[in-house]
Amino acid sequence: MIAGLKLSHLVSGFIAVLVGYTGSVAIIFQAIDTLGATQAQANSWMLALGLGTGLSGLLLSLYYRMPILTAWSTPGAALLVISADGVPMSEAIGAFLFCGALLTVTGLTGWFEKLARLIPDAIASAVLAGILFRFGLGVFSSMEEDFLLVAVMCVTYLAGKRWFARYAILSLLASGILYCWITGTFQTVAAFSFSVAQPEFIVPEFSLIALISIGLPLYVVTMTSQNMPGVVALKSAGYKPPVSASMTVTGLATLLLAPFGGFTFNFAAITAAICAGPEADENPKTRYKAAVVAGMFYCGFGLLGAAVIGLFLLAPKALVITVAGLALLNTIGTSLNAALLRSDDREAALVTFMTTVSAVSFLGIGAPVWALLFGTATSFALSRSANSSFKRAS
Fold first, then answer.
1. Contact yes or no for 157/277 (Cβ under 8 A)
2. Whole-angstrom Cα distance, residue 230 to residue 246?
3. For residue 191, how many other CB atoms are within 10 A of its CB?
4. What would the pLDDT profile of 94-111 be if each residue is shown by its tens digit?
5. CA-to-CA distance for 52 and 56, rounded, in angstroms?
6. Which of 172, 225, 325, 351 could lock 139 by a disulfide, CB 3.0 to 4.6 Å apart?
């Protein structure tokens, strides 16, 4: 057992896993179906993804004493749904191995870490606030789906913040579950078989077409949509993440588990923000324990294979969105405050924030990367303008 483990660590770790699974399981199953996987292969995929995410995040968090959560690439799974139709499973596995090799080389060379160091703190905070902003908005849009459920959870959250702040998130989750149980909102028609999943090894084949159409785009999507926001999330929380070492670990995990369905592993962003925020622990030095707990949950759920995914799908969407939004509320506010604190950085931070919230996508590159580019360009342009004005005044 981890020394000094708190209830807040357990709650934050569980919520991170809850959000991680419910936000992507449907897409993963679509990807599995697109590749024509058997039931045994589908179970192996979920085993590999759970163990890969859990063990890599757990080891990194324990070693570096930081809340370094890892994740599978949800945008990568979406890419498979679009790009893998008609591709044999064995060739897709070869593409996964190719992506894992690229991730490992990126970590070993250290170029990505050098790039991440150039990101100004205000810009990084603005990106994180923009990424998490839609989760905060989701609390209110979920009222259209189930107003009473969201209202009960919001009232519980406010009461908790007022009288028992340490247990506000736990009370919020408990009230939502209790309400759904009393009202019969949970979907309980499915049958579950809680057997331990078995790994299913798939012999890889390497096809130039699959490497170009799946492997390379998977690497680009993972780097731009997952690793960059993940680094930003930790940096905004006040940590200096070991970027190269972490990417090497996730790359090696991909190489090791790709033949079993672990298509790619990377930094987590949204779930990392849950474990890296003050809700997980008031002391930043011990928040890593929440990430360790999350890693244990991921391993446990991975061992149960696809059966446990059905449990996550039982919960009403409004329940998950409200829990995530309110759990991230403090982090959203802190990030916005850090982004807009200095007047010199304010306009660049606003450009960054609004670009991220817009969810704009060009050339297959997601909004967070464009936000970093636009925000940095704005900061550079305004600083040059200020310097020129100073020189003319002299």
1. no
2. 11
3. 7
4. 999 999 999 999 999 988
5. 6
6. 325
How many degrees, rounded to 5, is the angle at CA 22 between CA 65 and CA 197?
80
For the chain, domain boundaries: 7-340
Closest to 299 (Cα-Cα) out of 71, 8, 47: 47
Whole-number pLDDT of residue 316? 79
Partners of residue 72 on adjacent β-strands: 265
Residue pair 71/271 in contact (Cβ under 8 Å)? The answer is: yes
The overall pTM is greater than 0.85: no
Using the structure block, give the residue that is written with the tokens 């908790």.
160
